[in-house]
Design goal:
With 372 residues, the chain is an alpha/beta fold. It has 3 domains: 125 residues, Rossmann fold; 65 residues; 165 residues, Rossmann fold, CATH 3.40.50. The strands form 2 sheets. Strands 2-1-3-4 form a 4-stranded parallel beta sheet, sandwiched between helices. The structure holds iron/sulfur cluster. Iron/sulfur cluster binds next to helix 14.
Length: 372
């Protein structure tokens, strides 16, 4: 029987593993990207390839060592390199002596037959259509539970009383959700997970900063690729809200565009009316939406050589001025170190705190003048 693997993006692997096994596949779970992954990826990818491509090259080589012979991945469209990933990976791996079978999912709303054909190829147990739909629904519910747990961890971490408590509980509850199989079990596990998270001792009077995270999808979703930046910010007393989760992205890109997706586009339109590929336009639109919601700052995560994020980076200083919101950009590659990133985040947090304090003083002074 063929052994299937897929790109690892955060905790979503738990869902994909369940779904692929449900359809009768033997699954090789991609390991969390590590230094070994990166070394392999950098060694065997073109020098100026995007950072996610390099990590995935390394991941695939690791899964091949573990016996994988089939890769399930996504395609892409629009003017950036995402659409070429699968083909390029196939070529790189073939040159290294691994003729992998690639199953590439394009956006179902543009390529519905590609979706049906691929699902059917992966349906090794020959489950009926109704069975496939119910399995996809169950996997979707698990993905939602995983995303909801992660979102709550972003709210709790900056308020936790005992440093590290959120991360410890979060890792535990991931296993609860992972072990849940039926929809009822998933709903129960999610409820227990959220409850456990809420029960973490917190200081609700603590003043926390709010920061929006924007950027390219892979480096947003895979913490190993952004050096656990969200956790670092949480430990600095910052509540983060990521602009993209896999459930949101899938909802926006699978069948029809959601109102949320359209709102982001509309917000970005005065600065960037064109689709430039990747998530460049979303980075602009989301910054404006976060600023309007009163966020204290933004962090942009961009893979080194990512054209859409480079374009967004050139526009963001204007958005920052117009909406009075500080923005910090990280270009991530194999050279990025955690210590340097933490130092920059500490300085950025300090800047936002001072700005907030100044604004507060100004408002109090204005109020006093008004009262007088
Ligand atoms: S969005 Fe950026 S990182 Fe992703 S494929 Fe396109 S250019 Fe590369």
């Amino acid at each position: 029987m063929s052994k299937v693997t897929f790109p690892r993006m955060g905790e979503s692997w738990r869902t994909f593993k369940m779904l692929l096994e449900d359809l009768g596949n033997e699954v090789v779970v991609p390991p969390r990207p590590s230094k070994k992954t990166l070394d392999l990826g950098v060694r065997h990818s073109p020098e100026f390839a995007c950072f996610p491509l390099k990590i995935l090259t390394g991941t695939y080589l690791e899964t091949i060592e573990m016996g994988a012979d089939t890769i399930v991945t996504s395609g892409g469209m629009g003017p950036c390199r995402a659409g070429e990933y699968a083909m390029l990976h196939h070529k790189i791996l073939k040159d290294l002596g691994h003729d992998m079978k690639m199953i590439v999912f394009e956006l179902p709303r543009y390529y519905p037959f590609n979706f049906i054909k691929n699902v059917w190829t992966l349906n090794k147990s020959r489950v009926c259509i109704r069975g496939i739909i119910s399995r996809i629904k169950r996997a979707w519910r698990k993905l939602q539970a995983l995303d909801n747990a992660e979102k709550l961890s972003h709210v709790v971490r900056p308020r936790e009383i005992n440093r590290g408590a959120t991360t410890r509980v979060y890792h535990k509850i991931l296993d609860w959700i992972d072990q849940a199989y039926t929809t009822e079990q998933i709903i129960e596990a999610e409820a227990a997970a959220l409850e456990a998270m809420r029960n973490i001792p917190q200081d609700h009077t603590r003043e926390v900063l709010k920061v929006g995270i924007i950027g390219e999808i892979y480096v947003l979703l895979e913490p190993a690729s952004n050096l656990e930046m969200e956790e670092t910010l949480g430990n600095l007393g910052v509540e983060v809200e990521r602009s993209m989760f896999l459930t949101g992205w899938t909802r926006d890109n699978t069948w029809t565009e959601t109102t949320q997706g359209m709102t982001v586009k509309e917000a970005a339109a005065p600065y960037l009316p064109e689709l430039i590929g990747g998530h460049g336009r979303d980075s602009i639109g989301n910054t404006i939406l976060f600023a309007k919601r009163g966020f204290d700052g933004m962090v942009q995560l961009a893979p080194f050589t990512c054209i859409p994020e480079i374009v967004a980076r050139t526009i963001l200083p204007r958005v920052s001025r117009d909406y009075d919101i500080p923005i910090l950009t990280f270009f991530l590659d194999e050279q990025t170190g955690k210590a340097g990133m933490s130092t920059r985040l500490e300085a950025f947090t300090e800047l936002m705190r001072r700005k907030k304090l100044l604004l507060k003083k100004k408002n109090v002074a204005q109020k006093n003048i008004y009262i007088a």
